[in-house]
Amino acid sequence: MNEVVNEVPVTEEPIPAEVVIEAAPVEPKPGEKTDPALLLESLQKERAKRKEAEDALEAERLRNQQQPEVVSDEGKILLERLQGLEKIVLTREQNTQLAALEAEHPALRDKGDEFEQFRAENPGMKLETAAKAFLIEKDLYVTPQPRKGLEQAQGGGRTPVQQDGLSAEEADQLRVNNYPEYVKRIKSGTLKIRT
Q: What is the model's pTM?
């Protein structure tokens, strides 16, 4: 067997020398050298200042909302008229609601003065809620009973299918019992026998 010999001489590549690159000095990040207790204290001070500023802005906004800016005497007069009209509309709506509640719960009509005193003691309640609370507190609330009457229709609703024409027996009876009608239907083509 012949041995294969590589006739090309092997040359090794020179290994380059290691090059050491010195890193530039790293500057510390902001706050790295600061004491953590000092950082926490500064953070709390900043939050307190921000909270004070937000509270001041909120108070200013509320002050501006409560005191509408009226420039002229005509504006003041219009504002007073507008407030008067709003009161009139509100009292009419409340009277309408009260009349409807009195119709629904007659006990409110009998105890009208006590109900008005109850509403004065509880100013934030809606009229309907105040009426129910008053009636329950005075043990006058009566839940309406369902009316008794005819039973509800159940289980049906399907109408029977109408079939055109007469059965064979019905046609036979018509021929025997009423021959002239039988002949008349045959001539007009209205006598249909279903199968």
A: 0.37
Q: Angle 179-188/168-177 helices, nearest 10 degrees?
A: 120
CB atoms within 10 A of CB 134: 23
SS3 content of the chain, % helix, strand, coil (to 5): 55, 0, 45
- For residue 165, the SS3 value is coil
Same domain? 129 vs 80 = yes
CA 62, 65, 67, 69 torsion-angle sign: positive
Residues 77 and 135 in one domain: yes
pLDDT tens figures, 168-183: 899 899 999 999 999 9
C-alpha angle 74-79-83 in degrees, rounded to nearest 5 = 150
Domain residue limits at 53: 36-66
